[in-house]
Amino acid sequence: MYELHFAVPMAGAVFCTLNTRHDSNMVSILLKHSEAKIIFVDHQLLDIARGALDLLEKTGTKPPMVVLISESDGSSPTGSSSSSYEYESLLANGHSGFEIRQPESEWDPISVNYTSGTTSSPKGVVYSHRGAYLNTLATLFLHGIGTMPVYLWTVPMFHCNGWCLTWGMAAQGGTNVCLRKVTPKDIFDRIDQHKVTHMAGAPTVLSMIVNSEVRDRKILPHKVEIMTGGAPPPPQIFFKMEELGFGVSQLYGLTETYGPGTYCSWKPEWDSLPLDERLKMKARQGVQHLGLEDVDIKDPVTMESVPADGKTIGEIMFRGNTVMSGYLKDLKATEDAFSGGWFRSGDLAVKHSDGYIEVKDRAKDIVITGGENVCTLEVETVLYNHPAILEAAVVGRPDDFWGQTPCAFVKLKEGFDVDAQDIIKFCQDHLPHYMAPKTVVFEDLPRNSTGKVQKFILREKAKALPL
Amino acid sequence: MYELHFAVPMAGAVFCTLNTRHDSNMVSILLKHSEAKIIFVDHQLLDIARGALDLLEKTGTKPPMVVLISESDGSSPTGSSSSSYEYESLLANGHSGFEIRQPESEWDPISVNYTSGTTSSPKGVVYSHRGAYLNTLATLFLHGIGTMPVYLWTVPMFHCNGWCLTWGMAAQGGTNVCLRKVTPKDIFDRIDQHKVTHMAGAPTVLSMIVNSEVRDRKILPHKVEIMTGGAPPPPQIFFKMEELGFGVSQLYGLTETYGPGTYCSWKPEWDSLPLDERLKMKARQGVQHLGLEDVDIKDPVTMESVPADGKTIGEIMFRGNTVMSGYLKDLKATEDAFSGGWFRSGDLAVKHSDGYIEVKDRAKDIVITGGENVCTLEVETVLYNHPAILEAAVVGRPDDFWGQTPCAFVKLKEGFDVDAQDIIKFCQDHLPHYMAPKTVVFEDLPRNSTGKVQKFILREKAKALPL
């Protein structure tokens, strides 16, 4: 997948990465929607690809050519079709004098990224050469990546083209360290073995690291810079990570902004703040990066900027070169996303007096109870402060009287045993009463492949709870 | 001048910096050529500006409005005209609600930089917003400038807009440390006082530092990264600088490439090379930066790329966003500079097998003696190896028999006394005989304000030498 980030655009084609956790049905839908001409399939995922191709044939769609990526020992899985090619053999037969096909316009598409599907059916987000170039440079800056970094891939490359650091590693002469499976032991082992300098990941990766078994950990060879994004992490996690030797920064963005769009640029004077204040600073999503023209928090109806008071909630909106060209073959969704001349993120935030933004919630994740808005993120932050809680997510549960009430889904740390009442009480002690959950459900949280909690599943579950 | 790098473009105007060492006559020529509407004058340079304005009036040209930058204590020089404004008062009367005037197109001009005049009459090099943005980011990368650097201005801001780091310091939240006069003592004092992290300068600045009095030096608070360019420095100077605690890198470019265009990106494996080899590596001008599309060494007639053999000399040519838009009001010079579809630097170089380029000479600085090409840079490198020589420059001296012969202008270190014959013998021991100077002249080298040796003056002197 890393090599194809260069080969495909250099051949004049558009690159579409697919999430490795999709099933055959989803893959067939995306192959058809993207009109893929060639599919490159890792040997571990051949069955899913085969299933997808079968589905395409059944619906009368011409399936793409298949290029199989064999195991590194060169052995092919049994039963590979005679109509397919093998990646390394294909390379060996290539023309070394092939002339790179430059895009005719810098606005030509370089890639299509299907959104992770937390909101609705996947949409194909189109990236341009121009946007990808600029977001690559901007992401290198915001992550402080100098020459010859060693990068551990705990962010999937199929997610916003690896937050554009696929191209970024090449730009800076970096070393790419890849993992078949992301486990705490693998993370610590690779850092130790390859002297990893930078990595990134959703908060779930950070959570995995701080909750790892001591026997799986290793002393880091130096400070490892880790950039987190995709969802606001519980503030406490920053300092637990720092205790282990990581430097953690936060960014914010969406597939539609090529991944990173804003980042919490740290000011040295904040080092001397009390822990609580530092946590608050760390938890902010910050300021726009060097590649973006504008980020603003606006009233979604009037399009007026909210005051920089740290209180007034508005929608985060983007403008600039590193905002998608549009959704593939979906003019309606594209127009909706850009209505008013800005890209509407669907995320709610406030702007602080120093210009730093802080995400409060997804617009659709807000719980409205008795006419009051509850930012589920704030409730989750309190829940993560509870010593027994490993993971937590809050959604609205329909209620005849209140409209909705906050409902917490909670996974406890191993060896801990508390009941719903304890947790509700804990929240009431730390929040206005109306914000505290009325219901607590104990179970593992459903997450998508990029680590985001799938709140639409939890909302369905909350709806189905017995009265 | 730093503030005006932002204020002028944000007011929708084009910024033209003038060399502070120009005389009234040159300033009047440039004011007229650039059609300046306002001139901002530092109080130290008021007399020169007044002279220029007088000259303009004499030729019937309407002089620009004058804004005087007073001493920091607010006192105005006596006799300031009533028709002029004072900078700080003007600011105090400004509208805080002024809306930034964005360029209509990103290709709109942001600045005009008059070339330093080593070749012919100054030309107005036009920079675009797009090019300036990209070269700013590229220069930050090649210099390894992270967030919140402390930058010492030993490169004048009137030279390629400070190699674009005027804007770069703002992009990275940097601190600007400025000097009224560049002396070794001031350099060491400011580094110590402000904990300078980065600086840059022509080789003459490096030479000034390594030849400084011990009493003027200070132990550096940390490694200070210094980027040198403008002319290839004598290789020895790199390691003398490193002994003093500086990290030195080399870049190459011209006013027409917004300053930096290539840089000698250092590879860790070169650290273990023998000193001689490391010197050779350090002295190369390297590879194109992240903002340029292409740098190549080409035969100036056929436009064919030279082989990457480290031997075949060709002309350095550039292509990309960070090449000037053209010369102001000089279509002929612009067409000549871009003939063949590439920007022709006029500099001669070879390309090594690893793609790194190495400058051999200015096309017009080559000495042709008995039909042989002599790269004056190679002769100068040998001269700098002589223990008694502080500075050296070689030009061609007209000769009835040979056409030209190499003529060395040399400044000795204090307390040394050698004669011409010693120096010629030293060169003959280290070079093919035809390359060794036939004449040695002892005197200070004429330099322009950016530290470049003015070879056109030396050529005149060599021509005028008695037989």
Keywords:
23 strands; 7-stranded mixed beta sheet; ATP-binding (chains A, B); Rossmann fold; 4-stranded mixed beta sheet; AMP-binding_CS (chains A, B); ANL_N_sf (chains A, B); AMP-bd_C_sf (chains A, B); homodimer; medium-chain fatty acid-CoA ligase activity (chains A, B); 3 domains; alpha/beta
Mind explaining what this structure looks like?
2 copies of one chain form a homodimer. Chain A has 467 residues and is an alpha/beta fold. Helix content of chain A is 29%, strand content 25%. The first copy, chain A, folds into 3 domains: 99 residues, no CATH class; 252 residues, Rossmann fold (3-Layer(aba) Sandwich), CATH 3.40.50; 99 residues, 2-Layer Sandwich (GMP Synthetase, Chain A, domain 3), CATH 3.30.300. The model of chain A has no long low-confidence stretch (mean pLDDT 91). Chains A and B meet through helix 5 of A and helix 5 of B.
Task: Write a short abstract of this structure.
Two copies of one chain form a homodimer. Chain A is an alpha/beta fold and about 475 residues long.
* Portion in strands of chain A: 15-25%
Question: In total, how many beta strands of chain A?
Answer: 23
Radius of gyration of chain A (Å): 23 Å
Q: What count of structural domains of chain A?
A: 3
**Highest-level CATH class of the largest domain in chain A:** Alpha Beta
CATH topology of the largest domain in chain A: Rossmann fold
What CATH architecture of the largest domain in chain A do you see? Answer: 3-Layer(aba) Sandwich
Helix content of chain A: 25-40%
Family (chains A, B): Belongs to the ATP-dependent AMP-binding enzyme family.
Keywords (chains A, B): ATP-binding, Ligase, Nucleotide-binding
Protein name (chains A, B): ACYL-ACTIVATING ENZYME 2-RELATED
Organism (chains A, B): Salix viminalis (Common osier)
